[in-house]
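Protocol step 4 of 6: structure prediction from sequence.
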Amino acid sequence: MLKQPVSDRDWARGPADAPVTLVEFADYECKDCRASYPVVERVVQSYGDRVRFVFRPFPVVSKHPHAQQAALAAEAAGRQGRFWDMHRRLYEAGGALGDDDLIRYAEQTGLDVDRLRRDMQDEELARRIHEVKLMGVRSGVSGTPTLFINGRRYEGKTAPVQEDELRAAIEDALREVSSA
């Protein structure tokens, strides 16, 4: 079960009152997360206002040396109102997440690069990522990607996420909500 409910501190798309909330804990440098990204995007978009998507960073720095910096870049972009733009770029980057790459993505996204650099050094952002990761650990997250649907851990294949399985799980959640 998801131990920390979705709040206004989360990066979320879709209406707060959507019948289904999909929460993903993921790492920008994780190969399986990159492969799952387009699947999750297609599925979420296809459900429109019936699904709210929440992204929570879970950098696995022991395996992915650039994951923390990438998460910081996304958080810093969020301070400029461009989290989702940077999120997309990071996943579409094909694993190129060095410092120069992050700056290039910021430029391509139209961000204030100097501000992004400063914000990436802000301990508050690093603390926030650490807090989110601890939320994940408390909820049983040990690897990425890990998804929760309406607070329950998604038990489908998550490495990478399979579209048909994810759709079936969301359909089950929608039926459950409508029969309650």
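Step 5 (inspection) to follow. The domain at 11-179 is CATH 3.40.30.10 (Glutaredoxin).
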